[in-house]
Design a protein that fits this description.
The complex is a heterodimer of chains A (114) and B (114). With 114 residues, chain A is mainly beta. Chain A contains no helices and 11 strands. Chain B is mostly beta strands and 114 residues long. The chains are: A mainly beta (114), B mainly beta (114).
């Protein structure tokens, strides 16, 4: 039972480079989410997806791009990384519903932008 | 707009003593409230949720939370703290609309001393 996995777990990159963070879930959950975790801010939603090919912006989408061609995958791309995007990134998934279902989180990706 | 506040950055408690981690919320409509826990270098794990019904909600690992509508609070409690309860705790509220979007508080670090 793999659940929800993220790769890489750690990444160091340089300003201006493109970086893609991967998220994969084995439950066939409809909803998937990307959050970033920063001290003093808690978790902030970057993008979410209600189903394959349906994505929408969250609270802090600028500088990020997502896609969801398959239900199980939800990659997050930083088109041109900036130092302010140094953070811990969490992917999550949940079943379809009216907003009361539990979200299940991956282990996170620690990203350092130099 | 929906929001949650966790007024304490850190809570210190001795092992065996009761613990409380505070959360207040601001929502329009019925509140759907959640508590998640994050252990070091791990993703968030679901503890419990309040959707409707009993004001006292029981969750994982012996935790419970009390929903108080008049005080707009949803405090997390445990009768007897364990050192292993030391972690970062997040309160969250469902965003408005029929989606699974959650808005998280900034987190409270619980430190249980032996």
């Amino acid at each position: 039972d793999a659940g929800i996995t993220q790769s890489p777990r750690y990444k160091i990159t340089e300003t201006g480079r493109q970086v893609t963070l991967m998220c994969h879930q084995t439950w066939s959950h409809s909803y998937m989410f990307w959050y970033r975790q920063d001290l003093g801010h808690g978790l902030r939603l970057i993008y979410y997806s209600a189903a394959a090919d349906i994505t929408d912006k969250g609270e802090v989408p600028d500088g990020y791009v997502v896609s969801r061609s398959k239900t199980e995958n939800f990659p997050l791309t930083l088109e041109s990384a900036t130092r302010s995007q140094t953070s811990v990134y969490f992917c999550a998934s949940s079943t379809e519903g009216g907003g009361v279902e539990t979200q299940y989180f991956g282990p996170g990706t620690r990203l350092l932008v130099l | 707009a929906q929001s949650v506040a966790q007024p304490e950055d850190q809570v210190n408690v001795a092992e065996g003593n009761p613990l409380t981690v505070k959360c207040t919320y601001s929502v329009s409509g019925n509140p759907y409230l959640f508590w998640y826990v994050q252990y070091p270098n791990r993703g968030l794990q679901f503890l419990l949720k309040y959707i409707t019904g009993d004001n006292l909600v029981k969750g994982s690992y012996g935790f419970e939370a009390e929903f108080n509508k008049s005080q707009t609070s949803f405090h997390l409690k445990k009768p007897s703290a364990l050192v292993s309860d030391s972690a970062l705790y997040f309160c969250a509220v469902r965003d408005g609309g029929a989606t699974n979007k959650l808005i998280f508080g900034t987190g409270t670090l619980l430190a249980v001393q032996p």
